[in-house]
């Protein structure tokens, strides 16, 4: 049961698109993300100016290596 819960919380190899929030395999996400962002920009540009949203920013929580994770924590903010 604990094993299942762990898989549910963090699916290995799956990552969430920061633009649309959907899950993709890391390979698929690399392809999807630029396309999704471009689509988002097109859709957003069609909106009236008052409804436009700021461009979603890529979160700085990429799979950290051991050395990177120290730097990432220190550089937040
Ligand atoms: Zn997406």
Automatic annotation (TrEMBL):
Keywords: Metal-binding, Repeat, Zinc, Zinc-finger. Residues 13-42 form the C2HC/C3H-type domain. GO terms for molecular function: zinc ion binding. PROSITE patterns: ZF_C2HC_C3H. It comes from the Eukaryota. It holds the Pfam family zf-C2HC_2. This is C2HC/C3H-type domain-containing protein. The lineage of its organism: Eukaryota, Metazoa, Chordata, Craniata, Vertebrata.
């Amino acid at each position: 049961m604990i094993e299942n819960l762990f898989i549910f919380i963090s699916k290995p190899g799956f990552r969430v698109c920061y633009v649309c929030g959907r899950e993709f395999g890391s390979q698929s996400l690399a392809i999807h993300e630029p396309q999704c962002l471009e689509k988002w920009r097109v859709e957003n540009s069609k909106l009236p100016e008052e409804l436009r949203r700021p461009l979603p920013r890529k979160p700085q929580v990429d799979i950290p290596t051991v050395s990177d994770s120290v730097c990432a924590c220190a550089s937040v903010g």
